[in-house]
Design a protein that fits this description.
By secondary structure, the chain is α+β, with helices and mostly antiparallel strands. It folds into 3 domains: 237 residues, Thrombin, subunit H (Beta Barrel); 94 residues, Pdz3 Domain (Roll); 90 residues, Roll (Pdz3 Domain), CATH 2.30.42. Helices cover 15% and strands 32% of the residues. Strands 22, 23, 24, 25, 26, 27 and 28 form a 7-stranded antiparallel β-sheet that branches. The longest helix has 14 residues. The protein is elongated and about 75 Å long.
């Protein structure tokens, strides 16, 4: 996976207390994965001059100290907001397992569809997704979220005056959960503008949309936080708002009191699926750059270094000799990538881009993703307690990178009989594998109550190296851990391979 941050999380990460919920009514409740885009082009390049229908420019808000209500702003911006109904193709449901000898089992066998044979092809099901959107040009271009129109068969939008019109998808960007639509049948639609600067925390905001199909709904709140990394998007820094948004608000705009769009509503934290006052909007600067590319090219092009990276925790920082958690830890450079050509190695810490310090892996991904392929960048590296710089020429990130396999490549193989048990009392049973199985030492068994299991290591994982030194036998693992203890280290850093995904894991010593 290109420029991966932490290994992929489950649909409801530990912390199911704060599940992230889609805001499209009629869709299954779930988790979004989205990101931010490039800033190489601008919506203003193709929207053209303002017209009388540019309702954002018509807003004359009262002075902040004199605001009694938001009615003047709402009167002007609400006509640019649309309700959206999409017919989408759902995945066919699987048959439940049949009990041997049951009437259903006999019926399936009689007609040649046995449960030990592959299922017959089933017709795709069609479901309805309800959401929101808003016009950004008088000729009918509109913004919404990608998850509303994923696998879409047809789209119908309803404007503020109640008129229904067909729309088509111009382009989508799965990494930012954004989509660009073209609404048919008009050249004089009211539209709004994107804000030119990010909002301040504490500013009033208005969310307008189609919650639960109740079109034209307005709610008010404030900006609760900015630059939220909710660990569900690779590139986005979400705006957190407390204006109530619910399913059906997805794709709708959040406005400032000047009538400018500061973000596109996309997700909420909620234990119930309804608003509890924690909503997230895709920032206007992300929308501006992504939508411009979707209009011009139908897709978003991003640069990449070609490394798998992860967050540096306080424990990893201590083990690597860093004064604090900072930068992005390289788990593995991808074959034939710019990273390999530039000499980046597993265990390197990328600390800066073009001289600007990099806070963490999320910031690295976002910054590189905003650059065009072919751009040459200077990366600051920390390798084995020494700092250096390296020049990398970016190539193009895949549009839809393949998902990493979840199952371990060697986990189903029987380990050799000889196994080394419980190195350093971590609750591990290790086994040496044949050379053809690849590098590393196999985790043959694990104590579910041990320290290794507590850090997420599982049977079938391969330990590749410890503290930057490759391990080939269980004895190598034991020796590396013992050496780390003798050096006074409190934790050891292991590079572990789970299936095709690699990550660094810290284990306590002593």
């Amino acid at each position: 996976m290109t420029e991966n941050s932490d290994p992929p999380k489950t649909a409801r990460p530990a912390g199911a207390r704060r599940p992230v919920v889609l805001l499209s009514a009629g869709a299954a409740i779930g988790v979004l994965a989205f990101a931010a885009g490039s800033t190489r082009s601008d919506l203003r390049d193709w929207l053209g001059p303002a017209t009388a229908q540019n309702v954002s420019q018509s807003v004359t808000p009262k002075p902040a100290g004199a605001i009694a209500d938001f009615s003047d702003v709402v009167d002007r911006v609400k006509p640019a907001v649309i309700g959206l109904r999409a017919e989408v193709e759902a995945q066919p449901a699987e048959h439940p397992p049949l009990t041997p000898g049951s009437p259903e089992d006999k019926l399936f066998r009689e007609f040649g569809h046995q449960k030990d044979k592959p299922d017959l092809p089933r017709r795709p099901r069609v479901s309805t997704s309800i959401g929101s959107g808003f016009f950004i040009s008088a000729d009918g271009y509109a913004v919404t979220t990608n998850h509303l129109v994923d696998r879409v068969k047809s789209i119908e939008v309803t404007t503020d005056d109640g008129t229904s019109r067909p729309a088509k998808v111009i382009g989508v960007d799965t990494k930012t959960d954004l989509a660009l639509l073209k609404v048919e049948g008009g050249q004089d639609f009211p539209f709004v503008e994107l804000a030119d600067k990010p909002p301040r925390i504490g500013e009033w905001v208005l969310a307008v949309g189609n919650p639960f199909g109740l079109g034209g709904t307005v709610t008010a709140g404030i900006v609760s936080a900015r630059a939220r990394d909710i660990k569900l998007g690779t590139f986005n820094d979400f705006i957190q708002i407390d204006a109530p948004v619910n399913q059906g608000n997805s794709g709708g705009p959040t406005f400032d009191i000047n009538g400018k769009v500061i973000g596109v509503n996309s997700a909420i934290f909620s234990p119930t699926g309804s608003s509890v006052g924690i909503g997230f909007a895709i920032p206007a600067d992300t929308v501006r750059s992504v939508i411009a590319q979707l209009k011009d090219k139908g897709a978003v092009v991003r640069g990449r270094v070609g490394v798998q990276i992860q967050t540096i925790t306080p424990e990893i920082a201590e083990a690597l000799g860093l004064d604090r958690p900072r930068g992005a830890l390289v788990v593995e450079p991808e074959p034939d990538s710019p990273a390999v050509k530039a000499g980046i190695q597993s265990g390197d810490v990328i600390t800066s881009i073009n001289g600007t310090p990099t806070k963490d892996d999320h910031e690295l991904l976002k910054t590189i993703g905003e650059m065009a392929p072919g751009t040459t960048v200077t990366l600051g590296l920390r390798r084995k307690a020494e700092d250096s710089t390296i020049t990398v020429t970016l190539d193009e990130a895949p549009a839809d990178p393949a998902q990493k396999a979840a199952a371990a490549d060697v986990g189903d193989r029987k380990p050799p009989p000889a196994a080394s048990s419980d190195p350093s009392n971590l609750g591990l049973t290790l086994a040496q594998v044949p050379p053809e199985a690849g590098p590393g030492v196999l985790v043959a068994d694990i104590d579910p109550d041990g320290a290794a299991a507590d850090r997420g290591i599982e049977v079938g994982d391969m330990i590749l190296d410890i503290g930057g030194s490759a391990v080939k036998t269980p004895a190598d693992v034991e020796r590396s851990l013992t050496d780390a203890q003798k050096q006074g280290k409190r934790v050891a850093v292991m590079r572990v391979k789970s299936g095709t995904t690699m990550r660094f894991v810290t284990l306590p010593l002593g």
